[in-house]
Amino acid sequence: CNSANVSEATVDFYLTRYEQGELSLILLLYRQSVIIRALNAINYRLSFIRRNRDDAKLQTLQEQHTTLTKRLKNLYTRHADEDGDTTVLDGLIASTKAELDEVTAELDKYTKKPQQYLIEAENLITYTQELLSEHDVHMKNLRRTFTRDEVLTYIPYLTVYGETLPRGGKPADVKLIPAFFVDQELEDFLSADSKEFATYKPLKIKTDISKQILVDEADNFSAIPIKKREDAALRNDPENVELFPVDSLKDTLADLSEMLEALQSLYF
Predict the structure, then answer these.
(1) Is the pTM of this model over 0.85?
(2) Residue 11's Cα: distance from chain center in Å?
(3) 11: Cβ–Cβ under 8 A, 6 or more apart, which residues?
(4) pLDDT in tens, 104-117
């Protein structure tokens, strides 16, 4: 950067702030946003399966598939034991196999997409559990500090930002905005724009008690319970950032895990 306002001392000033605690809240909010996006990614996959599931049709196909599989197995056994002419058995095996192939192809239409989504949802649940464990520890230590190497691990670069001002005036104030390290494969997965999810409504995370996090002059954090009226005012405040209790996020994940297990029993 060739800006006269962005010297090595300026960069060092920002990095020192991140080391001393500012990165803690930024990282907390970023991780929370990934957790909520992951919860929604799980939910819209499971919701898609439930919304598009035809239980009667699926059950009929599964029963037909089981019956035909058993019939074909019995025919092969009879064929192996037959010492004489097997023409009739050959015909029965061919017709049964053709019917089974037809039912299998139809069954795939009702199971392959759901099975894919179930596998993806299970993987996302495992990933979200790991994130929630980290989040839980972090929420108990909001005033967390970092070494310089840790800061640079989380923030690979800083974006220089400043308003464009007329020539000849006072130089614009410059801000350095941290760019977090992003797992691009995960980001693409969470950002997938699928037509199947176009009408999906995001999850509402339930909370029992709202708290406001305050920071004093010494940069010490404290969380105090607030009343519903105060909570409503803060929700409408653009300067306010909402943090969800870890237990509420865990409860949401537990509900989704139960939904996943119920659906898995129908497809696997």
Answers:
(1) no
(2) 33
(3) 158, 176
(4) 988 887 888 888 99
